[in-house]
Structures are given as C-alpha cells and as structure tokens.
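Hi L.,

As promised, MFS transporter:
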Amino acid sequence: MNHQPKTNNIFKVIGASSLGTLIEWYDFYIFGSLATIIGSQLFPSDAGASALINTLAIFAAGFIVRPFGALVFGRLGDLIGRKYTFLLTLVLMGGSTFLIGLIPSYQSIGYAAPILVLILRLIQGLALGGEYGGAATYVAEHAPKGKRGFFTSWIQTTATLGLFLSLGVIVLTKNIIGAEQFADWGWRVPFLLSIVLILVSVYIRMKMHESPLFSKLKSEGNISKNPLKESFSKKSNFKMVLLALFGAAMGQGVVWYTGQFYAQSFIENTCKVDFNDSRYMLLWGIAFATPFFVIFGAWSDKVGRKWIMLTGMLLGVLCYRPIYQEFLDRTDVSNVTPTEIKEISAPITLRTAIHENGDSLATTTTIVSLLDGSSFHKVQVDTVYADASKAIGHAPVLYKDKKLASNDFWVFVGLIFFQVLLVTMVYGPIAAFLVELFPTKIRYTSMSLPYHIGNGVFGGLVPFVATLIASFKGSTPLSGLWYPIGIAALCFVIGTIYLSNKRDENVND
C-alpha cells in the first residue's frame, strides 16, 4: 500500500507548517515586546519597577507551562496524528492572544486584569508546547534522508520571524496612531490582529494530509498505546530525553532568549534607548541574520549537528559581557560636555498630585541634542511640598528616550546581528537533531518535552531572571548575564562529553 499522500509535497508541507508556527510565535511574543506598556496597564500607576518585573513574570509563566503542553499535546500527536493536534494548538493560541487584547486595564477591574492575562498566558504556553514538536516532526517525516537539517531549518526560522513580525506590527501601529494613543489603547491592536492570521493558517493546514510515516504506523497498527510511558519509563529512551535537554536544548534556549528578548529589554529598559530605535535595531539585526538558520541547518546535514550548536553556545559564553558593556558605554550620556551639545530645548514641567494635602511631583524634561546627531531626554523629578517650610526633595537625574548617532545605531545593529547569528547556530540544526534521537511512534512526545523545558523554562526565564538579578542590591547592569552564561557553559560541557555527532538516526523507525 502507498502511504505517501499524493498532494503533500515537501514545499507545501514547509509552507503550511511554517506559516502556522510563525503565527503562533507572533502571538506568543507580542506580550514580551510590549512588556513595559502592558505592565503600566495591568498594575497600579505607582507600582514603578515592580510593574515591569511582575509583567515579565507573567510573560515567563507562559514558558514554564510549555513542558506540560508538550506532554499533553505530544501524547495526542502520537495517538491521533500530527495534523489535527497542531491544528488544535493553533486555535488555542490564536483565541488566547485575541482575548488578551480585550482584557480591561487595572483602572477598570483592578487585580482581575493581571489574573485574567495570566490565565490566557498559561493557555498560550500550553498551546505552544504542543505546536513546535508537531510542526518539526511533521516536516522531518516528509523530508528526504540527508536533507532533514535543511528542510527542518525552515521551521526554525519561524520563531525569529514571529518576533520580527510582532516588532514590525507594533512599530507600524505606534507610528500610525501615535505614541500617546498607542500607550492608551493602541497596544491592543497587534493582539486583535492575530485572529485574522489564525483563520488563514487554519484554512491552509486543513488542506494538508497526515505525515506519511505516521500514516504507515497507523495502518500497520503500530501506534504507541501509551507514548508517555514508552518515552519516559524505558531507560534507553529516557536517557536520550535527558541528553537532549542538558546537552543541547537548555543551552540553545538561553542563547535564543538572550540574543533577542533580553537584548531588546536591556537596550530599552537599562540603556533607555528610544522605543522605536530599539525595535528598528532588532528588526535590522534579525533581517540580516535570519538566512543563517537555513545555512547552518543545511551545513549540519554535511558535518553533523553537534559542533555547530556547541560553538554557538561557547561564543555566547565568551562574548555576552563585552557586547552588553558596549551597549552601556555607547548610551552613557552622564558625562556629556558643553562642547558636544548642539541644542537644549526649553524645559517642560508637569505636576502630579501625590497626596491629599497638596504635595506633588514636579517632573521637568529637557531635550538635549548633540552635534553627532544623537539626542536624549534629561528628566528631573522633584517632590514639591505644600508646606513651604519643608525642603524640596530631589531625585537623581534620569536620562531616557535616547536616540543614537548613525554610527552608534549601526554598531548596535551589528552587535544584535552577531547575537542572532549565534541563535541561528544553536537553533538551525536542533529540530533535525531532536527528531533523529527518537523513534516515530513516540517522537512527538519524546522530543517536545526536552525542547520545551530547555527552550521554554531555561530560555524563557532569561528576561525575568536576568532583570531580577540586576535589581538586587550590589549588582551591576551586567550581573543578569551570569544566568545565560552559566547555563550555556554547563550545556557546552555536557554536550561536548556526551553528544554524538551522528545524523539520520531513528528517523524511519
């Protein structure tokens, strides 16, 4: 009997799988890209830095539940098939994203707002936990032997392109409706738009057929009756699950989220670079680096997956601190001299009441333009007491909304490009690597769990953990980098000792 679907050629498979997965990543990452604004909507106006940390914690919650999604939907995928399982995950993701765009603010419903968003974020995490394993398995089981790294690398582009798409939609929306309206209600638009993308992707995926290898297993009656038990109770398979996690996936995860999400968070929240500029830098860096997913994926078909992935991790360990120190140095405007200043705007002072007795905050903003084309906002916040006998309290001067000179802007793009290049090294080959570790009948379950623990938990926690570490007393802005550096270094050592560089194993079992 011929089990190869007649209309399922490899390019249609890649197109349908990649589009759906790209949209799921878009949905998942809008939240992280808008963390600062969402924090101001979900928490009290006087929450300060804790609003950002709490919002990043909600963002991280979506990553923590991804392994549970991998277990639930991985089991379904090994029992009923790849196609319908990742159709279900797509609908769950799209519905949750759309509903986040409708949640009222803290001012309207109080702490019910962050609680509802947390629930929807958890559903997003569960859905993504089932999506990736299905898409990667589906493509790998259609790909010809010897080209699985190349063909699965197209799926690998979707995570970064989903981030690229989310950033592009955010910047475009903000520029169309204006910064003030975007901060008020316009941030909801990227969430609401996802429903259109989901409907298009569901329509395309409905026309696809089941994986030929799974169809063959099903017709022969060899489908696993208990994928969870077979994946984790058999010593030999469980050993592969642990090796996939500690020798590859967790290092890949921290490199991915440091090079893209933490880079964005650091540039915006620590370096205080202008909102649009920080997004444009990331967009350019991603655009230049994305083709390397396919390049490294194809190269791994020739030389093996192991050393490409481990080299990316090692370069991250060695280069992260110098890169982020360069970010700090090029955005330090505290020592600007009068000879460097081109123009200083007239100061604008806004008063905000902070107490019923008439005490208020006076926020004075001055825009400073420099001769090299850069500019920044100098902000002084003073406490003005109604009782004139009390002294005026001065807060430290803040420098924010920094626009960089052209030269510095492109240096930032280059440094982001290099970090995303490391992402392509660790991420481009990993789908083929994971698929080839496990037999067909338990592949969806077995590969999904280590991937989503490594990528979702170890990697997804990078922005939250690194930001939290940097907020501790006695820490420096670079202290948070020790988390991804430590995880990547540990993974490099384990992978070097225990990983095999073989390829094309177990794919047709």
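The CA atoms of residues 478 and 506 lie 43 Å apart.

Thanks again for sending the construct details.

K.
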